[in-house]
Amino acid sequence: MRTQQFALVNANILTMDAHESVVSALAVDGERIIARGDRDEVMMALPAGAPAYDMGGRTVLPGFIDVHTHVEFIALSRHFWHDVRGLSREAILHQIQSKCEQAEPGQWLVFQGTFGQDLPSLEELDSVAPANPVAARWTMHKFVLNSSALSASGITSQTVAPVGVRLQKDNSGRLNGVIEEGWDLVAAPDPAPGEFAEAVEETLRSLFLNNGVTTVHEIGRSTAGIRALRKLSSQGTIPRIGLLLTAAPGHQPLASAADIAFQGLGPGFGDDRLWLQGIKIFMDGGRDGAYRSDLVEQEAEQWGLLTRLYPTLVEELVRASQAGIQVCTHAIGDLAQEIAVSAIERVHEIHPDLDHRMRIEHFFNESTDTAQLERLVNAGGIAVPNPGFVFAEPDDPDRRQPPGANKYALKTLRAVQGIVPGNSDTAGAQPFTTNPWFTMKCMLELKNRNGIPINEAERLDVMGALRGFTTDAAFATRQEHDKGSLEVGKLADIIIIDEDPFTVPAEAFDTILTRVTMIGGQPVNGTMDAFSQAS
Questions:
Q1: Preceding amide of 249 cis, omega within 30
Q2: 287: how many CB neighbours lie within 10 A of its CB?
Q3: Cα 202 from chain centroid (whole Å)
Q4: pLDDT (tens digit, 9 = 90+) per residue, 63-116?
Q5: How do residues 23-79 score in pLDDT, each as one tens digit?
Q6: pLDDT recorded at residue 535
Q7: Are 400 and 370 within 8 A, CB to CB?
Q8: Domain for residue 363, yes or no?
Q9: Where are the alpha helices (DSSP H) in 243-390?
Q10: CB-side exposure of 404: number of CA atoms within 13 Å?
């Protein structure tokens, strides 16, 4: 398409506005929608001769928004690491041995597994990789190193773990190779900048744009990754990127909350293709490092990996809120979540009229009641659970964390909070969650990888799932005035699909294909060549 003045007609346009309006045509001028309705109405808004593309009844939706993901890690796992997700321990060891035999002595090798997988031990890794540093990752939160990797990284039993990191040991006090929340300690070299930028671009195009994602909120991992995103965004070849910088202490810290708040790096820093969305704070670790009340009776070394106390978080959130910066706090364990909720309540007490929309990531993946959620909502905060995680839940209810919790209570969340923000939150362990259609399938079914129902009573309907990646995600990222629905004045971030999602069975949702993805009225994935121009 050579012009940004055009109409889409003869379409099933799900506008996702507050009235759930469905129209047959819309018009775009520049980067924004200027009219919608029937064909005659929208053509009157365009100059004579502007093209009108006949959709042939196909469905048109707002571009999808992913509120939380880790593109850099996905790119590393796809292009530079070795995929062992789903393999048995024996098959993993065979692959590691084969790769080591092909590698130079001393060359690093990283293998990406997934949640709860049976990965090899340090001793097993040593037996097949005696001359190479090797890392096998469950997730970004937990991995195992062999002896060569520990040595190359300078990690010994005398190493004092940084705040929020755990170096696991065996009963004799020796390192067993398992590290939680400490990928920053690993000396595995990064790829060359040019190769890495190509990998980031391929990942954003094939996993996000190809599936209709027009805005990605990325948790920055490195300055090299940010440089790559800046270059790619200026070329217009990737989705819009809202960048979140992790505040120390925490994974890949790139800033402190005070630095961002007091150096003018607040709202408006950047442009509509790449901007600073906010700050990410890790209150605790992943599933095994969650700060939970049922662990505090044990020795302190076995507690969840708390990074800061309540007064520190309050100070960070208050400073950020005064600077107009959104904060997304990672909190999985019930005690970490209590600290986060209480801190947001304190922000609300200090600034009762402020629309801060402080978020708690992973909140309401598990719950016992709605009391804490109601406190969060009343204080102006937002819970952001991860419906795609249901895929990795164990078949046995007794093995789900924490035992007896209500898992992924999405219907209840929508009733109390009003939104269920869509996100993939993957760093390579589950790359398929980058496809919103897959994660919406999880919302609709709430089943694990083996088809076992996890919480059938809490499933969303199709409209609820679609809202997760459109209006809900726009509100959760404070972008509802520009994105999330197809309304006059909003950005023309648009996707075209062949099927009406309301006619697709839940179990087939992940088979829906996106024909065209537009950003600001320009096709960035797929073309309009297949659509005839209406006479």
A1: yes
A2: 21
A3: 17
A4: 999 999 999 999 999 999 999 999 999 999 999 999 999 999 999 999 999 999
A5: 999 999 999 999 999 999 999 999 999 999 999 999 999 999 999 999 999 999 999
A6: 60
A7: no
A8: no
A9: 257-262, 310-322, 334-350, 371-378
A10: 3
Q: What is the pTM of this model?
A: 0.97
Q: Give the end of a domain, one of 260, 277, 294.
A: 277
- The Cα–Cα gap between 184 and 288 comes to 18
Tell me if 33 sits within 8 A of 489, measured CB to CB. Answer: yes
Contacts of residue 27, Cβ cutoff 8 Å, sequence gap at least 6: 5, 6, 7, 33, 34, 35, 36, 42, 43, 45, 46, 50
| 82 beta partners | 111
End-to-end distance of the chain based on CA atoms, in angstroms? 17
Q: What SS3 class is residue 320?
A: helix
**Residue 422: closest CA among 462, 378, 380, 468:** 468
CA atoms of 139 and 81, how far apart (whole Å): 13
Q: Given CA atoms 405, 411, 416, 419 in this order, what sign does their dihedral have?
A: positive
Domain final position from 225, 246, 277: 277
Cα 176 off chain centre by: 30
By the 10 Å C-beta count (0-12 exposed, 13-18 middle, 19+ buried), 162 is classed as middle
- Residue 24 has which token pair? 């047959």
| Tokens standing for residue 514 | 């996106």
Residues 47 and 99 in one domain: no
- Cβ-proximal residues to 123 (8 Å cutoff; 6+ apart), any chain: none
Contact status, residue 464 vs residue 414, Cβ threshold 8 Å: yes
For residue 246, is it within any domain? yes
Residue holding tokens 């294909």?
A: 513
Question: 124: domain CATH number?
Answer: 3.10.310.70
14 lies in which domain range? 5-62+490-525
CA-CA distance, 208 to 474, in Å (whole number)? 17
Whether 68 and 203 map to the same domain: the answer is: yes
In a domain, 354, yes or no: no
Are 161 and 182 contacting, i.e. CB atoms less than 8 angstroms apart?
A: yes
